[in-house]
Amino acid sequence: MKAPIYILIISISFTYAFEVLAQNSELLVKTIDEYKKNILKIEQRGGMLYCEDSSKRRDAFNSCKSFHSLQKRGCYGSTTYEMGNEINYKRICKKIAAIGKATSSSMHFFNLDSKEWWKSLPASIIPIPGGIYNDQLLEHQKLEDKKLLSKRLLGKVNYESVTNKSDSVEIILSSSKEDCGVVQDELIMKAVLLADFDGDGISEMLIEGTRADYSETCHLGSGNRLGAGFSVLVKKNSKDAFPSVFPYSK
Predict the structure, then answer these.
(1) Phi (first) and psi of residue 113, to 5 degrees
(2) Do residues 149 and 123 make contact, with C-beta atoms less than 8 angstroms apart?
(3) In principle, which of 49, 126, 183, 246 could form an S-S bond with 233, CB 3.0–4.6 Å?
(4) pLDDT (tens digit per residue) in 3-58
């Protein structure tokens, strides 16, 4: 059973890290081109979609162009795996389009020296949890999240405990006890790149992650993680400005 918004952030880790770093940051340096190379490799893995037109078969795709072509034909993922891959591939294609416009910039207003850097991010980066929703429930969840998270920083959201590490942070905001054991609403996210995505000369922070229920003892079903992945850009125009979110993919 999902709690409306109380979550577990269990691991905010840095896989690609930031392109531009503060002097004392322990994060690794990666360039835009290196990051783009990684997501293009993921694009090439592709997948399959089922087409109900005259072909009545699963057709393969291995590029955003071929993926969009199949979508225009009405093709879709017909298994849980294919549905998850379709959702993730939409996000990959949006990310490729966004990274194609990104440029390097040494100007940013994020505090990267502190292990508690994540506390200054807007709480609105938290997505709705993964899973299968009907339209009415989905809209209700979005409205509840908006009311709870609007104009709040992530560090101001209540949590049970936090463990900061050199390259990650683990935060437990809440958990619930069920007959099968403990179920935790889990948000896993990482800061993957710092670059100028909108051409104003100031770097935005690219955040990626997932949110879904997690349990070591309860069977949550294969659909639990559908749509759990997310990518957002966080923008901060000055040292004292409240950060905002560019949800270029969901």
Answers:
(1) -80, -30
(2) yes
(3) 246
(4) 444 333 333 333 333 333 333 333 333 688 888 899 999 999 999 999 988 667 89
Residues 6+ apart with CB under 8 A from 237: 109, 200, 202
- Stated pTM of the model: 0.76
d(CA 73, CA 53): 7
Give the residue among 226, 196, 176 at the shortest CA–CA distance from 32.
196
* Interior/surface letters 72-95, b for 16+ CB within 10 angstroms, e for the rest: eeebebeeeebbbbbbbbbbbbbb
Question: Dihedral of CA 217/158/156/22: which sign?
Answer: negative
196 and 202 Cβ atoms separated by less than 8 Å? yes
pLDDT of res. 119? 87
- Look at the block and give the residue holding tokens 């691991």: 11
d(CA 222, CA 203): 37
